[in-house]
Amino acid sequence: MQERVLSNPKIEVLFECETVGLTGDKVVQGADLVKRRGQSDEEQLHIEIDGFFLAIGHKPNSDVFKPWIETDEIGYIKTIPGTPRTNIAGVFAAGDVADPHYRQAITAAGSGCQAALEAERYLSEKGL
């Protein structure tokens, strides 16, 4: 995917930049950026845009659970396909920590809802 992005003439990749604001009336029209924040050559930039996609990261933050819960080689928590259930009864995984494919806030929210419903059912079955 990196090669596709870098070779696309419609995409400009800005390295060492942090987005500090978005501008626009009803739709995003611009972004305020800081390039090389905290360095002697720090720059303030404003660019005109018609879309914005925020990527938070691609390494699941699951290390604390690895002694107990099964993960894949990258660190994503393994779940029973189609469910948020893990290898431990009563333990559910949701969001980016269990989703190596979509990694989107909206799908993370949906899987969080699924996990909450599964947890509720699990507790009800246990009489809790």
Automatic annotation (TrEMBL):
Keywords: Flavoprotein, Oxidoreductase. The keyword Endoplasmic reticulum does not apply. InterPro entries: FAD/NAD-bd_sf (IPR036188), FAD/NAD-binding_dom (IPR023753), Ferredoxin-NADP_redctase_2 (IPR050097). Pfam families: Pyr_redox_2. The gene is trxB_64. Residues 3-112 form the FAD/NAD(P)-binding domain. Its EC number is 1.8.1.9. One of its GO terms (molecular function) is thioredoxin-disulfide reductase (NADPH) activity. The keyword Transport does not apply. Coiled coil: none annotated. The lineage of its organism: unclassified sequences, metagenomes, ecological metagenomes. It is an enzyme of class 1 (oxidoreductase). This is Thioredoxin reductase. Transmembrane segments: none annotated.
